[in-house]
Amino acid sequence: MLLALVAPALALSSGQTGSSTTGCVSCHGSAADADVTGDLSTTSTTVAPSSALTVTFTVSSTDSTHEIGGLNVSASAGTLTAGTGTVNRGGEITHTRDQHFSGGRATWAFTWTAPAAEGTYTLSSAGLAGNHNHSESGDGWDLDTVLITVDDGCDDLDRDGYEACDDGLGADCDDGDASVRPGATETCDAVDQDCDGVVDDHPTDGTPMYADADGDTFGDPDAPDATCSAVPDAGYVFDAQDCDDGDDTIHPDADEVCDGADNDCDDATDGATSVDAATFWTDADADGFGDPASPVLDCSLPIGASANAEDCDDTRGAVSPDAAEVCDPLDTDEDCDSAADDADMDATGETTFYQDNDGDTYGGTVTTDACSAPSGYVAIAGDCDDDDTAFNPAAAEICTDPTDYNCDGSTGYVDGDGDSFAACLDCDDSSATSYDGAPETCNGADDDCDGTVDEADAVDAAVWFVDADLDGYGATAAAVVSCDQPSGYADNADDCDDADTGARPDAPEVWYDGVDQDCDGADDDQDGDGVARADDCDDTVATTRPGAEDAPYDGLDADCAGDSDSDADHDGHDSETYGGDDCDDADATVFPGAMDEPYDGLINDCDAADENDLDGDGADLADDCDDANSAIGPDAEEVWYDGVDQDCDGNDADQDADGVTYGVDCNDTDPLLTLDCDPTDDDEGDTSPIDPPADEGCGCASGGEAGFALAVLAFGLVGRRRGRRRAG
After folding, report:
1. Which of 353, 349, 348, 285 minimizes the C-alpha distance to 313?
2. How many angstroms separate the CA atoms of 68 and 161, rounded?
3. How far apart are CA 585 and CA 574, in angstroms?
4. 573 backbone dihedrals φ, ψ, rounded to 5°
5. Predicted confidence (pLDDT) per residue in 317-355, tens digit
6. Could you write out the DSSP letters of every residue in 25-60?
7. 143: Cα within 13 Å, side-chain hemisphere
8. How far apart are CA 290 and CA 314, in angstroms?
């Protein structure tokens, strides 16, 4: 059994503060001692304001073991000045070291300086008498108080709290009228109610007026006053609309100008109403050129505006005076010079067309470049005689005709390229990859001999998407397949709004305005952590979001849970290190009140005492034979013969511990009376300790029959040991 040793609190020779009203409980005992008396005494209980008063404190004791004394004195106001053997600590008087009693007492003197304000004040004291053993044992203490009145001797006849003489609060200028006193409310009645020497100044029932420091005839609403006159005082006006009373150019009648100040006091600075505001133009497509139909007045260039009005289409960023004119299917004037495509000499992206004199849809050697095919021109070349419709790449030939009607350079049944197609049937007998049914590829040749070159069914033709706003990003609708990129088309379908050049994958995102400028599908997730601003407690930091890993004890709520930063395992209990009660803040299964499995070496409920003592009876499992029942343990009282071993000593049936159990022992409370026998069993030669030989008779063996009693005891002990082995 372990004994806990508790060290007594040490009594210190140097004094302490904070005990003048509660007693010296922290070092000298929890209750006052009737043998100890601590007395405060003064030369007077009434003093003038700010005057000094000598105070004496005496501690005495009728207990002869008390050898030394100490004190602690505090004041409800005023100043305490230490004397001999005392010191001022934190505004209180205490002893520098303990003072030995002389004649059963110890005395100290010090000074109290009264406050300037009149009133009744309290001096509180605690007197200590100790036996000098540096322990609270045997010490005693007593409390005392003294009330001191501070009065300057001047009366308050009208009982308004102010005297006729100045007591530090101000003198009453009419001590016969309680409504007249320093600080009273001034009203328009020709009486100096507040005793400041001025009549009717700052009256509460006067006309409001306001300071006009800058002389612009408009007053400062934050500098109000009042007057009893119909005319405001000098430097004041009745108007309170000035928003800057230090500048006479700023007032409600002033013109708003572009200077960064609210000149006309309308709570708006600069802007379109400024008399010197400049004209700008809306630049909706952010291409640096403004819409002449949308002028904007402002002091400086607003966001989303331009200093010029030269844009001819402010909905498309690819259209402006700085843009290049390109051939497009919408015939758009991209460079704003009033000419589009073929009408503009600066157009780029033109296609080569071939002159078709004979009208057979195939051109000869005469070419021109244009956005659209001019009259008499076609997009397909290859006509070897453009003056005769019988000659063109699609013309029919017979193997016996020596004329090269299809302009392929061969006639007759010849397979010059070895592709198993006769020259008269092959559209290009010089190329083994060109024949009827061959796969068309984007190579500038008619591979499949269908009369067209690089058509949309070419195996390596690309998919192109309409780019209506010409921002380099196409829409998913109206896709075409072609070997070459058509004008007005893009090689991707990444544009989320093909009518707005401001909406495209590389556009700058304006967050939370309801528009997905950069086409990433999000306008309310600025930090890109997958959590919208409505659910994200900090949408500028990707590491701060619901479900994020929250580092405890760093002062940051990374998971937006709003829970304690000192509860790392989120079990509702703060760490002991940070003032909580959780003994393991890294394991959510460990906290006070948690389910604790005893004897497993784990303390889940932060209570080490119940780990091996489930029933709380003070005995661990190693000593407790039933740790689920607090009534059973090594220190429990045994209830004999009830079948329960309450005290865990292995014995419930042998109360006198003589080795013979109850039911066999004729007196189980006296170890000298051991055995009752069976009167019917008197067999000679029977050596059983239960039944004595017949010649000894029946009955309890007494102390005189020592041999027999010892035999019985031996039998009982043997039986007990055997019983324990069986039980074990």
Report:
1. 285
2. 47
3. 7
4. -130, 130
5. 999 999 999 999 888 999 999 999 889 898 999 999 999
6. HHHH-SS--TTEEEEEEES-SEE-TT-EEEEEEEEE
7. 16
8. 7
- Split at pLDDT 50, 70, 90, the class of 535 is confident
CB 127 within 8 A of CB 142: yes
- Say if CB 497 and CB 512 are below 8 A apart: no
Cα distance between residue 319 and residue 407, in whole Å: 45
Residue 483 burial by CB count (10 A; 0-12/13-18/19+): exposed, middle or buried? Answer: middle
Q: How far apart, in whole angstroms, are the C-alpha atoms of residue 314 and residue 147?
A: 88
Map tokens 């009549």 to a residue. 199
Place of tokens 């600590």: 89
Q: Which residue type, as a one-letter code, is found at position 501?
A: T
CB under 8 A, 24+ apart: contacts of 670-674: 672/702, 672/703, 672/709, 673/700, 673/701, 673/702, 674/700, 674/701, 674/709, 674/712, 674/713, 674/716
Sheet with 489-490: list strands edge to edge: 480-482, 462-466, 489-490
Phi–psi pair at 53, nearest 5 degrees? -130, 130
For residue 469, what are its two tokens? 């706003």
Report d(CA 232, CA 293) in Å as an integer. 53
Residue 581 carries which side chain, given as an amino acid letter?
D
C-alpha 189/C-alpha 199 separation (Å) is: 8
- CA neighbor of 547 nearest in space, from 522, 572, 529: 529
The residue with greater pLDDT, 545 or 716, is 545
Longest CA–CA span in the chain (Å) reads 163
Which two structure tokens, joined as six digits, stand for 691? 């039944």
- C-beta of residue 662 within 8 angstroms of C-beta of residue 655: yes
Residues 6+ away with beta carbon under 8 Å from 336: 289, 310, 311, 312, 313, 319, 320, 321, 323
Domain residue limits, the chain: 25-150, 461-522, 524-562, 569-611, 613-652, 653-728
The rounded radius of gyration (Å) of the Cα atoms in the chain is 56
Tokens of 480: 């075409």
CA distance 620 to 611: 9
Chain segment 686-713, per-residue pLDDT in tens: 444 444 444 444 445 444 333 333 333 3
Residues 587 and 147: their CA atoms lie apart, in Å, by 59
Q: Does CATH place domain 25-150 in 2.60.40.4060?
A: yes
Is 251 in contact with 265 (CB distance < 8 Å)? Answer: yes
